[in-house]
Write a structure and sequence with these properties.
single chain; about 110 residues; mainly beta; four-stranded antiparallel β-sheet; three-stranded antiparallel β-sheet; elongated
């Protein structure tokens, strides 16, 4: 069989605005003083993002989630080749930063 090094894993991350305010106010978005919320994956040595099928856009380590309204959630995902520990980071100008390690193994 295929080794864990060749295995492909689906990694999903959900970001939720649990606050009572949007992650950016309209005026802040208009004057571009806040960046959209992002989710970023850091891969371990030997891991890589899977190359997409022909014609599909390349995967990127950082995915923009936009600006979340109170109670809104967004889920993004990556396809990662290779076992190991990946770290997903959610970043929001107003909401701060949160990190989660994910162990990918067979």
């Amino acid at each position: 069989g295929a080794s864990a090094a060749d295995a492909v894993f689906d990694v999903r991350a959900t970001i939720t605005n649990t606050g009572l305010m949007p992650t950016a106010l309209e005026i802040a978005k208009r004057v571009k003083i806040v960046k959209p919320d992002t989710l970023t994956i850091e891969l371990a040595k030997g891991q890589e993002l899977v190359a997409p099928a022909t014609g599909k856009p390349r995967q990127t380590r950082e995915i923009e989630a936009g600006f979340l309204k109170p109670g809104e959630r967004k889920t993004v995902g990556w396809q990662v080749k290779g076992a190991g520990t990946a770290t997903v980071t959610a970043g929001s100008t107003r909401g701060g930063v949160d990190r989660k390690e994910v162990t990918l193994a067979r």
